[in-house]
Every structure is written in structure tokens, then in C-alpha cells.
């Protein structure tokens, strides 16, 4: 008996979006709204991939931690594998992750190879991000605002920077759709 599987892949998606910024910049909220505006899309929240590690997982922290750094790249690789799969099946992947270092961004660009990658950096500023973090249901205890300076230094000429401090989620999504042409 011969099994004839249903074809999964077809015309690749027009691209993928990597939304980044410091914690509190609005990545997950904007990514979910952006994915909802696209006809065929998938939201890949990279923190969720980190949470899949049941034992031995180490989250990024301000302190030096080689294992946490390794796991940042592991979760990015897994996000890219998942994004490539969705993109090959015509779904536009919308990834959200904290990407502060150029090496991390270059890794995404090299690893997510199925479609063009649109890098969007949300920059509400450290004060607004801190306020958003404090207003979350899950309050972050670490002050991540110093990452803003590191991100601006390392990624200054990369991607499209959107100051979303005074923009609504819908306005931010509109700006992303305008610059990526994915609408």
C-alpha cells in the first residue's frame, strides 16, 4: 500500500519579520497583532522556545553566563527552523526575540534562509520600557534598560527602527506593514 502524503510546502511566503527590542518594548504584543493582520502568518515567540527546556535551561541575565549565551543561540536556531518551515508552507513567520548583539542578529540572518528577513527594532526608550515592564501581569525584577544602549551601539545601522513610545499597537503594526510591504 503506497502512502501519498499531502504536499505541505508550496509557494514560499513573501518574507519573515524579526521584531526585536529590549524587554518592555512591545515585541510580543506587536508581533501578535501583526500576525493577526496578515492573511497567512505564524507568531513565533522565542521565549516560548526557551520555556520548552525542562531541565538545565538558563535564561539570559546581566551577569556573564556562557551557558545562557549558548542557549540564546539554540533558541534562535530553533526559531529559525520553525520559521523556515512556516515560510516554505506560505505562512509569514513573525518572530519576537530580544536581539541586542550584532552576532545574534547575524545568526538570525544566516540561519533563517527560506525567505527575506525584515528586521524591525522597536525603540520606545528605556523609561517607557521600564514602565511597561512594571505594569505587566508578570513583573520583571531585572532592570533591562541598559540593553537599550548596547542595542543602539551594536545594531545602530541594522534593520528598521520604530519608536513606538507614543504609538498605539495598531499604529506600530501599520508602520511595519508599510516598511516591509507584506500587507
Write up what this structure looks like.
The protein is of the alpha/beta class. The protein has a single domain, classed as P-loop containing nucleotide triphosphate hydrolases (Rossmann fold), CATH 3.40.50. Helices cover 45% and strands 13% of the residues. The protein has helices spanning 27-37, 46-51, 66-88, 102-111, 126-135, 146-155, 169-180; strands spanning 16-20, 41-45, 92-96, 117-122, 160-162. The protein has a 5-stranded parallel β-sheet, with helices on both faces. The longest helix is centred in the middle third of the chain and has 23 residues, at 66-88. The chain is globular. Residues 13-140 form the AAA+ ATPase domain. InterPro entries: AAA+_ATPase (IPR003593), P-loop_NTPase (IPR027417).
Give the overall shape.
globular
End-to-end separation: 44 Å
Question: What is the CATH homology-level superfamily?
Answer: P-loop containing nucleotide triphosphate hydrolases
CATH class: Alpha Beta
What is the level-2 CATH architecture name?
Answer: 3-Layer(aba) Sandwich
User: Would you tell me which CATH topology applies?
Assistant: Rossmann fold
- Supply the number of structural domains: 1
Number of helices: 7
Q: Oligomerization state of this entry? A: single chain
Share of helix, binned? 40-55%
Taking the sheet with the most strands, its summary is: 5 strands, parallel
**Class inferred from helices and paired strands:** alpha/beta
**Which strand order spans the largest sheet, edge to edge or round the barrel?**
2-3-1-4-5
Radius of gyration: 17 Å
Beta-strand content bin: 5-15%
Average pLDDT over all residues: 92
From N to C, what is the helix and strand string? EHEHHEHEHHEH
* Uncertain runs: none
Amino acid at each position: 500500500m503506497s502512502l501519498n502524503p499531502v504536499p505541505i510546502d508550496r509557494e514560499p511566503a513573501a518574507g519573515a519579520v524579526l521584531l526585536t527590542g529590549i524587554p518592555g518594548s512591545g515585541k510580543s504584543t506587536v508581533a501578535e497583532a501583526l500576525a493577526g493582520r496578515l492573511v497567512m502568518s505564524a507568531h513565533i515567540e522565542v521565549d516560548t522556545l526557551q520555556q520548552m527546556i525542562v531541565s538545565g535551561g538558563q535564561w539570559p541575565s546581566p551577569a556573564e553566563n556562557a551557558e545562557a549565551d549558548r542557549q540564546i543561540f539554540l533558541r534562535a536556531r530553533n526559531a529559525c527552523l520553525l520559521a523556515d518551515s512556516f515560510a516554505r508552507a506560505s505562512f509569514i513567520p513573525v518572530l519576537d526575540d530580544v536581539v541586542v548583539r550584532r552576532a545574534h542578529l547575524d545568526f538570525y540572518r544566516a540561519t533563517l534562509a527560506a525567505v527575506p528577513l525584515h528586521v524591525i527594532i522597536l525603540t520606545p526608550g528605556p523609561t517607557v520600557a521600564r514602565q511597561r515592564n512594571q505594569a505587566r501581569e508578570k513583573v520583571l525584577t531585572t532592570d533591562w534598560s541598559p540593553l537599550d544602549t548596547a542595542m543602539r551601539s551594536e545594531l545602530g545601522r541594522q534593520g528598521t527602527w520604530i519608536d513606538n513610545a507614543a504609538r498605539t499597537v495598531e499604529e506600530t503594526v501599520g508602520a511595519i506593514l508599510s516598511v516591509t510591504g507584506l500587507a
